[in-house]
Amino acid sequence: MDLSSVLYLALPLSVLALTILYLSHRRPGPAKQPNSAARAGSFYELMKNSHRILDWTAELLAASPTGTVTTFMGVVTSNPSNVEHILKNRFDNYPKGDRSTTILADFLGRGIFNSDGDHWKLQRKTASLEFNTKTIRTFVLHNIRREVAGCLLPILAAAAAAGEVLDLQDLLERLAFDNVCKVAFNEDPGRLAGDTDQGREFANAFEEATNLVVQRYRHPFLFSWKLQRFLGIGSEKLLKEKIATVHRFAMRVVRAKKRAEARGLGDDLLSRFIAEADYSDEFLRDIIISFVLAGRDTTSATLTWFFWLISTRPDVKNRIMDEIRSVRSKKQKPAEATFTLDEVRNMDYLHAALSETLRLYPPVPLQTRECAADDVLPDGTKVSKGRPVMYSSFAMGRTERIWGKDCREFKPERWLENGVFQPKNPFRFPVFHAGPRMCLGKDMAYIQMKAVAATVMERFEVEVVDREKEREPDFTMILRVKGGLPVRVRERPAEGVLAA
Ligand code: HEM
């Protein structure tokens, strides 16, 4: 790049930097919102609180009478009526929007996770049919049982015998990655069983590409990361390489599956899309990358928080153990190392404990949409065209107005009536999103999480090292446990359970 181009690009950058400085030091004017959203959170405050963005927004929202605030970042709400308006009633006015889809486009293309309008509708229609069949549920459970019995339990047994400390979060992430790849395209990258070269390269590139692409959100203007990409410098250089590795792997999978079509397709999601219509290779590549991203760290993060939370609550742990024993006692044939679909379904208390974990530590804690045309939210907040509008599941899970005075307590009982699990209104609990774009993998996620939790707990006592220590969330794309979760495991004496 020559000097004149550098100067040409440097000038607008300086203007942007000065604008940011001006905005951050400007005295806030009188609030323009009529009766609702407090105007809070200047650029300066945002920077000051950037390391605790979730707690900071939760505090702002709790202090606002309507549960909505207007910040430098856009409108943020924890008000269920607003959430219903954005996600359902005025769905078409709140797409993901250009800013977000442009940021993720190099990586995700126009896969279901990163598209709006007709392109999204087409994928959603096919995917909804495929996610809701009994065949896919059975396929999901079959894979998770295989992976748990064949890989996870032996690793835990070896650690128990050696008295070794394990990072449970890391193990669960490996398990979730292998599992979502099996469900998406029926290949196991072997993250848990001992990496294959190709699998390791794909998994590492996927992980790094996700972390690097998220860095683009930290740029206040699209222009700044685009400039880096154009110059091929810094994190953008590395990102390009990682994305190329992921795309190469995914393309190989798509082409191999298409070639195998004549010999019969499988039950995985890619096979089902191929059988459905003559989609292009790129279209299918984008779809499977979206599925892997969607189903990867969400379940492992939830399980990690779950194991930490129950380690601080022996009463909850005991009730889960009682439920597991009771489900087992109804079995006619000798118990296996893992559970059937019906057994997993019948665990209401475990379902409640996982939902309570999701309430306090939602894997996707803050969601953003972009306002397509000027609008007024049900609480009176005005939103202008192009503004980001966010809802915070994290703040909502900790809101007294929604969950009562004990909202910060871990209390699975709040989800049960006469021992039976009662789902909550998704606009008050939008952890899986809500409305037409609600998470497609919700049932699948519960099946996986329940199967893993019950199988591990039945066979092992999991002791979290330093369990009383408060765990800090680490929020990049998914709300993980900062620093992982070190645990020791001990084998329980067998209660009629066969070895894996
Ligand atoms: C605890 C586990 C999970 C949670 C909390 C969760 C949460 C969410 C949320 C909040 C969204 C909306 C994201 C957005 O629009 O930006 C979403 C979408 C989605 N999820 Fe999940 N998810 C979970 C597990 C899974 C799993 C295991 C899969 C399976 C592959 C999956 C597949 C999807 C898909 C395909 C979408 C896109 C739906 C669309 O845009 O129409 N999810 N999920």
UniProtKB/TrEMBL annotation:
InterPro entries to which the protein is assigned, alphabetical: Cyt_P450, Cyt_P450_CS, Cyt_P450_E_grp-I, Cyt_P450_sf
Cofactor(s) required, per the database record: heme
GO molecular function term, any single one: heme binding
Gene Ontology BP annotations: lipid metabolic process
PROSITE patterns: CYTOCHROME_P450
Transmembrane segments annotated in the record for this chain: 6-23
Signal peptide: none
Alphabetical UniProt keywords: Heme, Iron, Membrane, Metal-binding, Monooxygenase, Oxidoreductase, Transmembrane, Transmembrane helix
Residues annotated as binding heme: 439
Listed Pfam families: p450
Similarity section: Belongs to the cytochrome P450 family.
Protein name: Cytochrome P450 94A1-like
Gene this protein is translated from: LOC103707600
